[in-house]
Amino acid sequence: MFESVGPLVSSPWIYALVALSVLLDVFLPMLPSGVLVITAATAAAAGSKAATGHVPHDVPDILLLTLCAATASVLGDLVAFRLAWVGGARLDRALARSRKLATAQERLGAALARGGGALVVLARFAPAGRSLVSLGAGAAHRRVREFLPWSALAGLSWAAYSVALGYFGGQWLGTTWVATAVSLAALFGAGAGAAYVMRRPGA
């Protein structure tokens, strides 16, 4: 597996690449941030077996990888939140035309008013859910202190889950593309489950 991506995952630049991808995927959900995190974590699993002499020693540190991904996730949420907050007439009209964003604003506002923000955590796993919630919270002018703790929990949960999938997948299935594919399937499965829960009227 690492013959093709080894130079990337063994470089300190992997942290910057992961952070940049996670930061920007709030605006560009098609960016492969989850793929990068899981691939790097699978490489870390290879490093734990380095005593065999058949895998690279210079592999990512899973704690640093988790911290980078979680921090970038929160920063991206806050950037989207702030941009939607200051918005302007053009952005406000665009948000108003989006049924998904209008629904997200309404449901998020109700959830935060009740003192709970599980919707923010769920949205982090759902495809494009992070974008809807961050933009919706900003457009609705929610207070930062209401949104930020849940964004931090969401970012840490997503990062820890993704890293754990890659790392333990590599431990149990070997550091191969099969392990990465199984880990990605589990990540996408969690995203599909989160999207289903978010669509339920009582969520």
Write the layout of secondary structure elements.
Elements: H1 2-9, H2 13-24, H3 33-47, H4 62-86, H5 89-97, H6 99-113, H7 118-125, H8 129-139, H9 144-173, H10 177-199
Helix pairs in contact: 2-3, 2-4, 3-4, 3-9, 3-10, 4-8, 4-9, 6-8, 7-8, 7-9, 7-10, 9-10
Low-confidence stretches: 1-5, 50-56
Briefly note the structural class of the backbone: mainly alpha
Mean pLDDT across every amino acid position: 78
Largest sheet features:
none
Task: Tell me the overall shape.
Answer: elongated
Indicate the proportion of strand residues.
Answer: under 5%
Helix coverage percent of residues?
over 70%
Our measurement of the CA-to-CA distance between the termini, rounded to an integer number of angstroms, reads 40 Å
Radius of gyration: 18 Å
Figure out the total of helices: 10
Kindly summarize this structure in a few lines.
The protein has ten helices and no strands. It has 203 residues and is mainly alpha-helical.
List its traits.
about 75% helix, disordered N terminus, mainly alpha, about 200 residues
Report on this model:
The chain has ten helices and no strands. The relative contact order is 0.16. The chain has 203 residues and is mostly helical. α4 packs antiparallel against α9 and α9 packs antiparallel against α10. Helices cover 77% and strands 0% of the residues. It is elongated, with a radius of gyration of 18 Å. The protein starts with a helix and ends with a helix.
